[in-house]
């Protein structure tokens, strides 16, 4: 029996997956820390953002110790690629992760590696006959698009768009229009690298997509088992995204399936999803997303087990 852990630290959240080679998944956790707070504007991590992340990671390390984890890999994505004071972040992760594995420290991975790991995790439980797959990993600072042999990372995400464009609560029509134009430009960039027209199944992963699935299904609480591999028609999703954008963050926070830390940025995430639907309809005649609860964490674990 071997227990390994994967940690993914993105712009909005830090997440943990502990896996046992015999028993399978032991624990999966998500904590909103907003590490990328202000990075798009200042180019640096805020002190309080690093401290929030430190507290969450320390909690995860304690759980790893209780569960007997012997190997850990932590990846850091969009916000850390952008921050000038990222060495402060690395020092903090080294101090904590070395309690599990000597020499362990967070790694800044490229958008392309992030995309490949997300693809491996997101498609693990989907019938291969449904492919070719296009996986979309919509994060806080970036969004990755990946198909077999093709991957690209774009600088759009729910936190980045909220801080840069959608300042009003709820966003105004002008802000929404500006966000749509910004997203369309990023999708056009992605389409130069990833052949959307060749995809038969579009797979959405990460918090915006999973939350939208829960809302589209009318769940009374966040239920990963019902969200994983759910297939949500575009028409239903458009109703959900429009409704989300019309509400204030406080109103969104009142829905039990919306994480309180996601409520102020999910209108931007919903706008990204709307533009993705338009693009995939045009390119491939797509009519739905398959939503995966598995993602980059599962891809990291697979790599740890194989090594």
Automatic annotation (TrEMBL):
Coiled-coil segments on the chain, per record: none
Q: Which Pfam families match?
A: Ppx-GppA
Q: Extract the InterPro entries matched here.
A: ATPase_NBD (IPR043129), GppA/Ppx_hydrolase (IPR050273), Ppx_GppA_N (IPR003695)
Question: Domain Ppx/GppA phosphatase N-terminal spans what residues?
Answer: 22-300
Q: What range does the record give for the signal peptide?
A: none
Record keyword Transmembrane present: no
Which Gene3D superfamilies does the record associate with it?
3.30.420.40, Exopolyphosphatase. Domain 2
Molecular functions per Gene Ontology: exopolyphosphatase activity; guanosine-5'-triphosphate,3'-diphosphate diphosphatase activity
Which UniProt keywords are given for this protein, alphabetically ordered?
Hydrolase
What SUPFAM superfamilies does the record tag this protein with?
Actin-like ATPase domain (SSF53067)
EC number(s) recorded for this UniProt protein: 3.6.1.11, 3.6.1.40
Q: What is this protein called?
A: Exopolyphosphatase/guanosine-5'-triphosphate, 3'-diphosphate pyrophosphatase
The species this protein belongs to is Corynebacterium mucifaciens
């Amino acid at each position: 029996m071997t227990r390994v852990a994967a940690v993914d630290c993105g712009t909005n959240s830090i997440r943990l997956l502990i896996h046992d080679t015999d028993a399978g998944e032991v624990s999966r956790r998500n904590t909103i820390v907003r590490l990328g707070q202000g990075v798009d504007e200042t180019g640096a991590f805020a002190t309080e953002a690093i401290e929030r992340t430190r507290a969450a990671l320390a909690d995860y390390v304690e759980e790893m110790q209780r569960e007997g984890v012997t190997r850990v890999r932590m990846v850091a994505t969009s916000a850390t690629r952008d921050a000038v004071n990222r060495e402060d972040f690395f020092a903090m992760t080294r101090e904590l992760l070395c309690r599990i594995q000597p020499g362990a420290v967070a790694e800044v991975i490229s958008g392309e590696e992030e995309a490949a790991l997300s693809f491996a995790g997101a498609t693990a439980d989907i019938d291969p006959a449904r492919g070719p797959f296009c996986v979309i990993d919509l994060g806080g600072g970036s969004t990755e698009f990946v198909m077999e042999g093709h991957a690209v990372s774009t600088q759009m995400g729910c936190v980045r768009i909220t801080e840069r464009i959608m300042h009003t609560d709820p966003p105004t029509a002008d802000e929404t229009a500006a966000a749509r134009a910004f997203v369309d430009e990023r999708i056009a960039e992605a389409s130069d690298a990833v052949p959307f027209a060749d995809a038969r199944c579009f797979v959405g992963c990460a918090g915006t997509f999973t939350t939208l699935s829960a809302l589209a299904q009318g769940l009374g609480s966040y239920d990963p088992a019902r969200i994983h591999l759910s297939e949500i028609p575009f028409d239903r999703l458009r109703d959900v995204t429009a409704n989300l954008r019309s509400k204030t963050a406080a109103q969104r926070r009142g829905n039990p399936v919306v994480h309180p830390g996601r409520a102020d940025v999910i209108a931007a995430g919903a706008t990204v999803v709307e533009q993705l639907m338009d693009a995939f309809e045009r390119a491939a005649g797509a009519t739905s997303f398959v939503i995966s609860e598995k993602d980059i964490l599962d891809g990291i674990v697979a790599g740890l087990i194989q090594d």
